[in-house]
Amino acid sequence: MTTIPKVYSIKTTPKETLESWFKLMTLGRAIDDKAPNYLKQAIGWSYHAPYAGHDGIQLAIGQIFEKQKDHLFPYYRDMLTAFSAGMTAEELILNGISKATDPSSGGRHMSNHFAKPEWNIHNVSSLTGNHTLHAVGAARAIKYYGEKAVSISSQGESSLSEGYVYEAINGASKEKLPVIFAVQDNGYGISVPKKDQTATRKVANNFKSFKNLRIIHCNGKDVFDSMNAMTEAKKHVLEVGEPVIVQANCVRMRSHSNSDRHDLYRSEAERQYVLDYDPLAKFRRLLIRYKRFTEEEIAAIEAEAKATLKAAHKAALAAPDPDPESYPDFVLPEPYISEKYPDGTHEEEGDKKKLITALNETLKAEFKHNPDTFMWGQDMANKDKGGIFNVSKGLQQEFGPKRIFNAPIAEDFIMGTANGMSRFSEKIRIVVEGAEFADYFWPAMEQYVDSSHDYWRSNGKFTPNVTIRLASGGYIGGGLYHSQNIEGALTSIPGVRIVYPSFADDAAGLLRTSMRSRGMTMFMEPKALYNDPKAATVIPDDFEVPFGKARTRRAGSDLFIVTYGNTTHHCLEAAQKLADEGIECEVLDLRSLVPMDKEAILDGVKKIGKVLVVHEDKVHSGFGAEITATIMEEAFEYLDGPVHRIGSPFTPVGFHPILERAILPNTNKIYEAAKKILAY
Amino acid sequence: MSTAIIYSFTSNKTAKAGQKIVDSFGESLKLDVVDADNLAEEKFLAYDQLILGVPTWFDGELPHYWDEFVPAMEEMDMKGKKVAIYGLADQVGYPENFADGVGILARLLRDRGAEIVGMTDVDNYTFESSHAIEDGQFLGLVLDQENQARLSKKRIDNWLEDLKKIFK
After folding, report:
1. CATH superfamily of domain region A355-535
2. What predicted TM-score, i.e. pTM, was given to this entire model?
3. What number is the ipTM of this complex?
4. A277 vs chain B: nearest CA distance in angstroms?
């Protein structure tokens, strides 16, 4: 039962408006009905989630969306939403059959994921509702920059079972953000009925106790009820400045998708029941019943839709397919290029600074350099506390709570809203403390992985400009959950740069480069070195370190040691110990893992022939495996013995200092391994 | 006084209940049976007394045939007309919106001047909320064929006992 103003009704809505709606709905449905034929003819559209039964609410979402001003995050069933928002029939088919000119992704993303990033119709993943966090992030930017606009997250009701949707709505409520959560409720998550999802059929009512949040229910099958609900929702967001959930009751007239058979779990009576409430048929009957259109006028529109579909079909079929040579494009955007420090080295003299000071001062400098820089995370900003290790101390005082602020204890929210906020403008740069410790980053992994896809998936149209800081590693007696290394798992995911400095100057230089670059960078901080004098260095004020440039920290000719992070220092200590015995080791600090400085590694192998790879993370499937395999493939003939790896065993890092010492690499373990290799 | 019972001829349970009502009135009341699927305003307004069959669809909605008639009803003058509503609903599957359709239509027609008759007790139903309730009573007869089919005959009989006193 709606209690919202009736702005639109069958009797009062101008005829030209009704006509435009009917045209959209008729042509949209014709495409929806035709989509399975493309698969039957082996042309494409192998994933199609029919929207039939969601017609009212999808029309309404698209109608209230103002392109290039509002932000729309449609889900995989939102064909009419995208059409109503302005995309053309041809563009929809280009997406459906995955053509190179598909404005959504150029055929890279699964079909039926409609987007047009240049209009702020965003390209999102298939993961149900994970764009809810992006919509909240975009809304944060809308609010910060004072735009009179809304962010719209469109999704099925089953997505509200996801924890990150709770995080998104909680954040929007807390921050009073201009976002509409348009929940299209067709009663099923594929074959899972609502009763198996939540105890509350009107699932939006689960959020009733949230402050600063309005909930509107509407009939998503009815054009006027949906238009009135979405119009009221947008008005409320713009005037009150608070979020709204619109739950639209829809029917799913077909199966979930073409890989689903709803006759396996829905009775014939139920299937007929939902067909009886065909929203398009209802709208058509209303137009005739209330004498707004004649049968002849309706027939003319329907004929026009057929002709338009035919022309769009023909044009889309003639469009080019993706070029197979193009697959490497858009994994990562070009980074910031350092003109002054092309190799990321310097000869500066003066006082040494600790690694934590390097990070703090670089953050401050970059926040001054770019006024569109933001940072949030857990424990980030409460009086004199600035981050769990106080890396960001003083930043909120200097740059204010709108640019530096605490996030809820919700890692996925931290990551997801960073992605979303960066969609608002290319000029924005975001830094997040991804979690209190690297060990706690796993809840954010779905956003991390999704964000890693964005640049590639959008065919180069969007990249999240985000630096993720993570306090990583052990040597602080913090096992199990304050000491793990996670880079071995992360380096297998394309689309994110990963850096792991071990000295203060490199930390400063890599952070500056990360914050000035487009794209996403995982910035791993060896927390054991924050205040360790051995990591302190002189740092030029404007120092920059390019990605993918390793640094030789000690030259030698007898053994080549490749390392990064905490173990750089252990390697240097072991090298000194060996030097005392007359053995000269070269120590290469990778600094960047992705991209990896393959050239520097291979040069060292070719020069020395004996190689030791060292890192703190597990040897088993650790990043050293990639380094070692690369050496074996590309420099085998230069080797003068097997490549050895030193790292942690295949266990967690234990808490007791005895266990931690037993598990983590140290100077002596490296020294012993070096001696074995040198014996070849 | 002219009387009509209006329900969808394509419906199943609602139509069966409607037929029972017709049978029960028998010769005691001249009762025209009108199809809600093809309802004209003139037809609706031609009667002084109406019995309307209004099932609740989905999570508390009118079925499309009544919903499509709402814009017409919103402008009607229903003064002097008596309206009794019966509705099919499912208190187990849809406890949050039990028989909402009955309440939606009753309030709409009352706002247009109609007198709503045939309220019934809410006893012996188990649900969470309903728009059909006012002052502790349903604004019509609520039948639950899904869960309480055996009670329907008695409920219809009791309701018609009251209606027979009201409808002339």
Report:
1. Thiamin diphosphate (ThDP)-binding fold, Pyr/PP domains (3.40.50.970)
2. 0.96
3. 0.96
4. 6
